[in-house]
Write a structure and sequence with these properties.
The complex is a heterotrimer. Chain A has two domains: 168 residues, Fumarate Reductase Iron-sulfur Protein, Chain B, domain 2, CATH 1.10.1060; 310 residues, no CATH class. Chain A contains 22 helices and seven strands. In chain A, strands 2-1-3-4 form a four-stranded parallel beta sheet. A three-stranded parallel beta sheet of chain A has the order 5-6-7, with helices on both faces. In chain A, helix 13 links the parallel strand 1 and strand 2. By secondary structure, chain B is mainly alpha-helical. In chain B, helix 1 crosses helix 11, helix 7 packs antiparallel against helix 9 and helix 9 runs antiparallel to helix 11. By secondary structure, chain C is mainly α. Chain C has a two-stranded antiparallel sheet with strand order 1-2. Chain C contains seven helices and two strands. The chains are: A mainly alpha, B mainly alpha, C mainly alpha. The interface between A and B is large, with 119 and 99 residues.
Chain lengths: 541, 329, 134
Amino acid sequence: MATKLPKPDELSRIDYTPPKKCWMDTPAELKPGMYCWGAKAKNLNVVGFPNARDWSPAEEDWKLPKEWEGTVLEGIHDRLSKYRSFRLFMDVCVRCGACADKCHFYIGTGDPKNMPVLRAELLRSVYRKYFTVPGKLFGGLAGARELTTEVLKEWWYYFFQCTECRRCSVFCPYGIDTAEVTMMGRELLNLLGLNIDWIAGPVANCYKKGNHLGLEPHTIKSSMEFFLDDIDTLTGVKVEPTFNRKGAEILFVTPSVDLFADPGTYTAMGYLMLFHELGLDYTWSTYASEGGNFGVFTSNEMAKRLHYKIYAEAKRLGVKYIIGGECGHMWRLVNQYLDTWHGPADFMEEPVSPITGTKFENAKSTKMVHVIEFTADLIKNGKLKLDPTRNDHLNVTYHDSCNTARGMGLLDEPRYVLKNSCSNFHEMPENTIREQTFCCGSGTGLNASENMELRMRGGIPRANAVKHVHEKYGVNMLTNICAIDRATLKASMDYWVPDVSVAGVHELVGNALIMTGEKERTTDMRGEPLPGKEGDENETV
Amino acid sequence: MKIIFSFFTVVLLVLLAFLGLKIANLYYLFGVIIPYAALAIFIIGFVYRVMKWASSPVPFRIPTTCGQQKSFPWIKQNKIENPSSTWGVIIRMLLEVLAFRSLFRNTKTESRDGKLSYGSDKWLWMAGLAFHWSFLVILIRHFRFFAADVPSVIHLIESLDSFLQIGVPLLYMTDIVLVAAVTFLFIRRVVIPQVNYISLIADYIPLFLILGIAISGILMRYLFKVHLVGVKNFAIGLINFNPVIPEGVGVIFYIHLFLISSLFAYFPFSKLMHAGGVFLSPTRNLANNSRMKRHVNPWDYPVKVHTYEEYEDDFREKMKNVGIPVEKE
Amino acid sequence: MKLYDGGKIIFGLIIFLGLITIPFYFNAGKAVAPPKPKLDTPVIQALAVKECVKPKEIMRAEHMRILDDWRNSVVREDDRQKIVIGGKEFTKSLQNGCLKCHSNKKDFCDKCHTYMAVNPYCWDCHFTPKENKS
């Protein structure tokens, strides 16, 4: 689709006036640039999703299966009895509106159906009609409406305009979590084959090949070799990671996109340098080569199917525990789902840092430690030689990923690591960080290219906060611990705040890390000259 | 439209009680049958709705973490906003239920020249808290109509509530606060375009109903006085299942009673169930400890997976070629 | 209906039901007769026409407001003019008016006030009248 992305000043003119007409009588108008392509049959078939077919959201006919209404209603019934969250959140909302202006998509679009409350009402109205007494008796008067094709299309449009970031849930007096509602909405759509291809493709890849990008084992190894060459050039140190090695103490799992695309690749190099310097007995896996899980953007079952590989591989390789890389939704799942899905992980040991001896008490059941926790502990115990001045050309701020902030609470560890790895650090305004952090605008598999307008709109609040610290303190580096952030914030920064780059925290660690036997570094991983070394560039070989 | 409909629904309730008594003399219906029925609907309905929620499990541990997790001893955990223990959860829930903690965070997003700012906005929190607490105090104060020997705590609440000693009978602060808060909540629903847009009839009806109850109560205290001794005698009769229709109690009392009955009967079918629901909210009432202690999903079932063996079968040669170890040579 | 976390939820429900039904069991079995204020003081009995400043129904509902008005006009406006109703003079005074006839505070005032749990602040300033215990 050759929808032209409007210019930033055009996009930032947002009208928040709701329309005159009641939302129930206003069918969704699918605007190009605001939605993704429909899931292709071949991708759905790989994992056996129902009603696989090629279809286009832009066309009138979505080729819905016969009696799809029954499938949806049965799907709702099933999920109401499985998830208390779903049933409760359908019932208790008082529409106080506290959530309305907390959503980055509402702030960025002004579309009232992007207010979390109304997004949930899209589904709630149908729930009332078929599952509550007042809805059955009084219909529209009780805020109930029939399930029609228009409603279904509206669901599709708006449940794929929610990144399940949970910011609304922080402000809701009953903790209503739109992520739960969107998850259910997407599961229902998935029953009808109505997913988006940007999710269906990675899911199919991940299922068969172990990672979203579909990197095959030899490709993983060869792309890693590029990093190793770069590290060698940069430091003179030869790093030799292992793959699928049995008997390693630790399995390292991280999102595959960091092996593939800048700037995530620099984060991956950071891990490689760090683990090498520690002499860590660890291995990568080409089978469990994905920490992320686009399955969770389709259905709980699919998510469970994809995350199976992590424990299975840990068991096969006989590792003591697992370290997980910087990733957002991966850590929501590791923290809140993995052990429930595939535990108990009693074939592993309670994680202990082999370098510091620290017991990771908080991970004693999942046996999975966040690499940021691992590194923070190293720094605290003085086990790393870091030269933060190597990052002096950077003026750093930190973006909390939605999932690690609101689905875990990993807030101070990354800041501790950062402050030990760089000298210039400035926080963004307090209502935009920590538990109140704003989504990058492209989470939950919405990081496609055909929906760029949606992504840039959803990125407005985050970009705005970055712009603020950029103008106030000269911040030029936006760090984070999420692979999707690294990919999407780059696009968002290029569009909104062009002078700011994006990096994973371990990129800065890698740059600051003084490695045994390394030569004098003159540039950072990106080839940017280090402060004070600007003139030396040409002297290095 | 929705506002007018809701308003007239409550007006209709008032008229119903008024005409029912003035024309049809249905004292027993409005004084005895309806209140009993409403209370029964309330109790049965409330319990049923809670049981219905309880019948759905909480398959995953999904607290919304609003502070630092428990990790190292040298990193200060926010034990309330991100609890890892039962006590933390209890305190978090108490703050949520008693002080509306989450609503206290409320901000107002404003856009000036393309710059966003998030100012603190406590009005909704204040009005919500004022409304709920004054309603509770009023409810407790009414206990004086039901107790033969009124406990001293009720006297205390009553004297605190009226300690300004304005007018006679003494003005209750909670009456004023309740009416003001409900009016505020109504006005914001009307004038804030976004809130207006999301509002349903089900949002206006409780406001009008509660306002109707408060106004009829205040009118009874100051304007259309009823024979209070008779009212109390009647109330005690009701709770002893021996109701006696009192003499000299005006229609305003029955309007007040009918509106309360309506609210009680409406409660279990409505959003007002948030009163029970808030306790069951899985994003608030669970500890964030699922990496320390396994949470079990009662309906967990085995899923189809792609095993390592299948994976190796697909890529064995490629793996061997680059020296990645395989299970089967 | 299978319940999850049933123990905790039922415990909560029982507490809730326990609280909202307090009126039912707090009073259980205590049938209290409504109070009947006594009007048989010697002064009243001696009256030819047993009449207060206003009819009984109005006095029942408005006596507090009448007393308040009197208090305001006497104490704040220094207006001690007597009230004449039907040729009869009444002193705007609690102690020298009302209590002259209703000398039985315990059997008159307190009866209803106690029953209704009302604490009038008359006696914050006024002496509680000494009654003849008979």
